[in-house]
């Protein structure tokens, strides 16, 4: 860890939190990530070796603890970072959140985020399958929901209840809160094909990003 050599609480905080990927790890812990592989899937570009180092740094600082089952969680000092992290979201949504760059529109990452926010309790049992395709990218995805949602990169061979089709930027904007899923669907930005009941159930179960309310407030 690089130090600034200044006896100042801002410097001490920056020394701990300013390393690459550290804020992302804390963001993910605040929003429900607990397993090592989940951090890797949710942060393309973060190597497993670097993730291990960052988690060890945060453990030594008393910000993160590891449970007996191998999962990670925030300590009380880590949970105290919530207003800091979401304060960054507020500032970013207000001052730094313009049009997306092409390399920011990773469909794998978007579908990883999206499938984790779907509420299984709002979908019909025993199984609900969503097929996702993009108008500007060749990859296809399936989200299979029973007691929880699973993301599939190959056809699981289940009957599809809803097919979602959009360009990547529109679905990112919808997930991040610039548009509601209802408004995006009505405007034709996100196409939803399926029975009326299935589409309604999917809209009810669709969960936006944990910072969606912040983004929506700044977009007004």
Q: Which features would summarize this protein structure in a list?
A:
220 residues; alpha+beta; Arc Repressor Mutant, subunit A; two-stranded antiparallel sheet; 5-stranded mixed sheet; 7 strands; 2 domains; Nonspecific Lipid-transfer Protein, Chain A
Describe the structure.
The chain is α+β, with helices and mostly antiparallel strands and 220 residues long. It folds into two domains: 9-95, Winged helix-like DNA-binding domain superfamily/Winged helix DNA-binding domain (Arc Repressor Mutant, subunit A); 102-219, Nonspecific Lipid-transfer Protein, Chain A (2-Layer Sandwich), CATH 3.30.1050.10. It has helices spanning 9-17, 22-30, 36-41, 48-60, 76-79, 82-95, 107-117, 168-176, 181-186, 196-205, 212-219, and strands spanning 64-66, 72-74, 128-134, 140-145, 149-152, 162-166, 190-194. The strands form two sheets. Strands 5-4-3-6-7 form a five-stranded mixed beta sheet. Strands 1-2 form a two-stranded antiparallel ribbon. Helix 6 packs parallel to helix 11. The model has no long low-confidence stretch (mean pLDDT 96).
């Amino acid at each position: 860890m690089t130090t600034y050599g200044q006896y100042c609480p801002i410097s001490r905080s920056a020394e701990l939190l300013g390393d690459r990927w550290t804020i992302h790890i804390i963001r993910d812990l605040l929003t429900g990530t607990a397993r090592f592989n989940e951090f890797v899937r949710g942060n393309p570009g973060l190597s497993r070796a670097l993730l291990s180092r960052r988690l060890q740094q945060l453990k030594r600082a008393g910000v993160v603890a590891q449970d007996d089952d191998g999962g990670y969680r925030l300590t009380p000092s880590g949970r105290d970072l919530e207003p800091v992290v979401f304060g960054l979201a507020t500032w970013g949504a207000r001052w730094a959140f313009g049009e997306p760059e092409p390399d920011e529109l990773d469909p794998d990452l978007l579908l990883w985020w999206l499938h984790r926010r779907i509420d299984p309790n709002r979908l019909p049992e025993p199984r609900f399958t969503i097929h996702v395709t993009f108008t500007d990218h060749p990859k296809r995805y399936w989200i299979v929901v029973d007691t929880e949602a699973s993301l599939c990169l190959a056809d699981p061979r289940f009957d599809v209840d809803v097919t979602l089709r959009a360009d990547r930027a529109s679905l990112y904007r919808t997930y991040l809160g610039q548009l509601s899923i209802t408004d995006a669907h009505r405007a034709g930005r996100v196409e939803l094909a399926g029975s009326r009941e299935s589409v309604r159930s999917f809209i009810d179960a669709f969960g936006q990003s944990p910072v969606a309310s912040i983004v929506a407030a700044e977009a007004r």
